[in-house]
Design a protein that fits this description.
Blueprint (H helix, E strand, L loop, with lengths): L2 H27 L1 E5 L14 E5 L1 H4 L9 E5 L8 H16 L8 E8 L4 E5 L2 E4 L2 E2 L18 E2 L4 E5 L9 H4 L2 E2 L3 E8 L1
Length: 190
């Protein structure tokens, strides 16, 4: 092989590696496309719908607001590290080509409670700090879930629920979510 061909191949490899590194930095720190998997956010979001997730809030460890739709790591009983932040986008890409690479640990949910809030689940509705929430985004008007004791959201955590309350795994089952497990905010749905 001539030096010209070798140089051309090396230039292409360099360009491809550089593009992949830039793409990874963007996806880890700024934005990431993803897809909804399941029915837990119906009628707001639907199975297979594409989402654009802003990641900057995760990097800055920002507390989401009430009603914000977020992406969470549902493994709330384990500490997250920077390795998780790198691995999650890689698995997201791999799942496009191979469904077996898709994990069930990343969920899309709505923020219902913030630190210090006292949540109650009674009369088919969610109550926050003694007031019934008005939630026009929920799929069903009555939630088939009650709890005899209130939940107080701890400092540094949020309480999240799916809009399809009767068909959602969420903080009612896994508990409050540490803010560092909020992976990003949904900024756009396609």
């Amino acid at each position: 092989m001539s030096n010209k061909i070798v140089k051309e191949i090396l230039d292409w490899i360099y360009a491809i590696v550089l593009a992949l590194v830039i793409a990874m930095v963007i996806h880890i720190f700024l934005i990431q496309p993803t897809r909804v998997s399941g029915e837990s956010m119906e009628d707001t979001l639907h199975n297979g719908q594409y989402l654009i997730v802003t990641k900057w809030h995760h990097i800055m460890n920002e507390m989401p607001n009430y009603g914000q739709i977020v992406i969470i790591d549902s493994r709330v009983n384990r500490a997250r590290t920077w390795v998780d932040d790198v691995e999650e986008p890689l698995m997201n890409y791999a799942s496009v080509f191979n469904k077996a690479a898709q994990t069930n640990d990343v969920w899309v949910k709505r923020v219902i409670g913030r630190p210090g809030d006292v949540l109650e689940f009674k009369d088919g509705h969610v109550w926050r700090n003694g007031e019934q929430l008005q939630e026009p985004y929920t799929k069903d008007t009555i939630m088939n879930y009650t709890r005899s004791t209130p939940v107080t959201v701890p400092e540094g955590h949020v309480f999240v629920m799916g809009d399809n309350r009767n068909h959602s795994s969420d903080s009612r089952f896994i508990g409050p979510v540490p803010v560092d497990h909020v992976l990003g905010f949904v900024s756009y749905a396609i």
